[in-house]
Amino acid sequence: MKSYQDMRDAVFEEIFEIAKRDKNVIILTADQGAQTFEKFKNQIPEQLINVGVAEQNMIGVASGMAKENFKVFVYAIIPFVTLRCLEQIKIDICCNNLPVNIVGIGSGYSYANDGPTHHATNDIGIMRTLPNLEIWNPSDSNSTSQIIPYLVKSKSPAYLRIDRGKVPEIYSNNINLMEGFHILKECKNTTIISTGNMVDLSLKISTDLEKIGIPNGVIDCYRIKPLNKELLIKTLQKTKNIITIEENSIIGGLGSSISEILVDSFSNKKLFRYGTPDKFRWDLGGREILHKIDKLDQKSIFLDLKNKLNQ
Questions:
Q1: Yes or no: is domain 177-309 CATH 6.10.140.1580?
Q2: Which of 40, 125, 257, 286 has the most beta carbons within 10 angstroms of its beta carbon?
Q3: Quick check: do 7-162 and 177-309 share a fold?
Q4: Which regions in the chain score pLDDT beneath 50?
Q5: What is the spatial distance between Cα 241 and Cα 191, in angstroms, rounded to a whole number?
Q6: Is pTM, for the whole model, over 0.85?
């Protein structure tokens, strides 16, 4: 397993290695940088195009290139490459089912001190309504790197959202991407389902719960759409209490997706959802501070679950 500086490094190092062998692999960036781009500029400069601060135009350019059989990755900060470009993504990419890969950096509160303009807490809820679009939300650099070869070969559009900066490593081995999720701890009577940077937090909360006599399992759901419904239903069959933890809006994200499956398939499960509230977060102080304000930190979630699961 390779060592990466961060999730962004994992994405573009993997793309670079493939692009050296395949001249049809192209990156479009909206004036957003990455360390690996120096390698592109020095060795394959024609495969890296900076369109400037013009994200909507970038989606149009990517769609046209995909029509000409290029394999295109577009890259910018999440709110700018998703919500600002929603109509272009819907019409140009998804309606035509073009294999354009949207890479968004800064999931959740990655850009905590930049305010609501940069927070990425409602993009999942919006993007998962678009037909044909896959949504990937990996939890560490190693799992991120494994997604890239799949995206290059895929014939469908995809949205890959990654965290900013260094994150704890969850995986040391390859995972079965096609399953859409990975069981990190065997599912018990209580099961935590998490995604992205909150998987590491969920493992810590899992340990806290075990210390007070509540055995539990942990699932990393790295593919938000399509969810592997059949395998999830089978996996959760014996679980009574299901907990979802995400750094996304409580409306429309992972918790909402899981609740839809439970309503359609079970009548005897309890679901406890943890995510960011339905409000703009103007507070400053960094990611940990915002988690505490939202009661999305380790202590707040543990104490709330301790109370609910012991009732």
A1: no
A2: 257
A3: yes
A4: none
A5: 6
A6: yes
